[in-house]
Design brief:
Helix content is 21%, strand content 29%.
Length: 279
């Protein structure tokens, strides 16, 4: 058997194993995956690697206290300290809470896409296919999107502001080495996000991608029906293999019309492992 045929057989066997692992994970870890979506083999320098099952952290409930212990467990799984804006560090994590360094910041801030405010300081380049992003309190979101209900159906996990794309419900986060100003691509061991008002278990998805754009993992954020409730969803791998994350928050872009079947969702804290340089 030549090397090429052997490699193809090994990859086929790995894909079958991946499917079995996905079924087991859904059964024993309570993870909800998209029907028909299968994790792929991770890639490193174009060479297939065995699929890795991440540790999944999820919680939902009516208050910040409902998800706090799971968020703290996720932080512990990432390991180390919150590195803030400090460059040149290894290990630990980065967090973005959208509050501008103050728990009393109630201003509404509109940003463009790409949103590069945290690119150099925390290694996150954030984009959307919409027109930009907004950081605002629930009342500020109501004014921004012309939907008065937003003032009451959304609550913040860390006071006072939330984060949302404008003209889209899709947010992409790509990792770079902090301090490199986007010149040095990086990967992370894990990523998690706090969300508010996830009413439907299939409306909000987090997709994790590797260096070559391969899908590593996908999961639904847990729902907690009722105005202002909070959800958390995150995964941690055994190594730094996440190059990009896509968050699909709700089943419609935020807007003025609460049409039947709409599940508008806002984001709060982003938490992720210290971006590790690719080269």
């Amino acid at each position: 058997m030549n090397h090429k045929v052997k490699l193809l057989l090994n990859q086929a066997q790995s894909r079958l194993t991946n499917k079995l692992l996905t079924v087991a994970l859904a059964a024993f870890a309570g993870v909800t995956c998209l029907v028909g979506a299968q994790p792929t083999l991770a890639q490193s320098d174009g060479v297939a690697q065995p699929f890795a099952v991440p540790t999944v952290f999820q919680a939902a409930g009516p208050s910040a206290a409902s998800i706090q212990s799971t968020v703290d467990q996720f932080r512990a799984a990432l390991g180390g300290n919150n590195n803030g804006n400090n460059p040149g560090l290894t290990g630990g994590r980065r967090e973005i809470n959208w509050d501008g360094g103050s728990t009393t910041n109630a201003t509404t801030s509109i940003g463009s896409t790409p949103f590069t405010v945290f690119l150099n300081t925390r290694g996150a380049n954030i984009t959307t296919r919409g027109t930009g992003f907004v950081q605002a309190t629930p009342s500020g979101m109501a004014d921004t999107f012309g939907n008065p209900s937003f003032a009451t159906i959304f609550h913040a996990f860390s006071p006072l502001r939330l984060f949302s794309p404008i003209g889209s419900n899709v947010t992409n986060v790509e990792f770079f080495v902090p301090g490199s100003n986007g010149s040095q691509p990086a990967t992370s061991t894990g990523f998690g996000v706090v969300l508010t008002d996830v009413d439907r278990s299939t409306s909000t998805l987090i997709e994790y991608f590797g260096v070559h754009g391969e899908l590593l993992f996908i999961s639904n954020a847990p729902a907690s029906p009722g105005d202002g409730n909070l959800s958390f969803s995150g995964v941690v791998f055994g190594d730094a293999r996440i190059a990009r994350v896509r968050i699909i928050a709700g089943n419609r872009a935020p807007g003025p019309n609460s049409r039947r079947g709409a599940d508008f969702v806002m984001m709060d804290d982003f938490l992720y492992g210290e971006p590790t340089p690719l080269f």
